[in-house]
What does this fold into?
Amino acid sequence: MTSAEPDKRLEIVFSEALRAVTHQQSVLDGIRTRATTLTAAAALVTPFFGTPVLQARDRAGWPTIVALAALTGVLSSTFVVSAPWWRWTFRASAAALLQAVDAGHDVDSMRRHLCLDFERWVDQNERKLRRMQWWFTAGLGFLLLEMAAWLLQLALL
It folds into this structure.
């Protein structure tokens, strides 16, 4: 191990790389929170607009079917966003860090390797986040379609 002073430039790089991973984790939390809000909105829209329609079953038509299908779309989209099958990387392995220490890596070397790891994780996570954002957008579109279908059905009653 060397006794040289750690490179201040690597501290800046490390700080920015860590900030990118932290920001990405907060974006993920935000998407999941909004998906929960989307589910709650669908839970409010359906009984508010759907109850009068479903009480007049004999006059319910194709807009009711569209509204119920759109509700299924909202719930499916939020399920995909919230499902546990997404694999994320936001933290380093303690075992790998200890191996680096045992191998004699200095602070600068460890920072350099962690920065590269952070960059790789951000790139891998970014593709998944984009897909999640599209699923959330689809859920939002389904919610708007559901509301429009219920309103149209109410107008036809």
User: Anything to note?
Assistant: The chain has a mean pLDDT of 91. Residues 59 and 157 are 6 Å apart (CA to CA). Helices lie at 8-55, 62-82, 94-102, 107-156.
